[in-house]
């Protein structure tokens, strides 16, 4: 059965997410992504003009999944921070490529990727602050900063396979 154009684009995007997460931005080629998706390399360019455009789309997907994960959290003021941490940890297990892409996005110098990373982190910060304020979390601004700083530290720890950064003990 012939797949629809939208399904193919989705497969390319998911293959891109996986390959970028594994190899990084600079070591990934569209040929590797095409191989992962089971298509020819030129076919990628029907959907994405450049590797950079594909990376931005994958990174936007990663940030959207994170944001949606936080939107799905239901908790009162006493539990909101803990429940959002728990939801993020679950996402880290179910979708580890999103974690890797955030870390990679922080290191890429191309302007469109820097802007995408900035926008994604800004959206997460704004949403989290709004949730904390609505839940009447004391010192919401400080709590959001701590929450995001811990999240970034967790991402780096995960990406480097260095759990002692978080748990204080070597593996």
UniProtKB/TrEMBL annotation:
One of its GO terms (molecular function) is DNA-binding transcription factor activity. Residues 6-66 form the HTH tetR-type domain. It holds the Pfam family TetR_N. Residues 29-48 bind DNA. Keywords: DNA-binding. InterPro entries: DNA-bd_HTH_TetR-type_CS, Homeodomain-like_sf, HTH-type_TetR-like_transc_reg, HTH_TetR. This is TetR family transcriptional regulator. It comes from Bacillus swezeyi. The lineage of its organism: Bacteria, Bacillati, Bacillota, Bacilli, Bacillales.
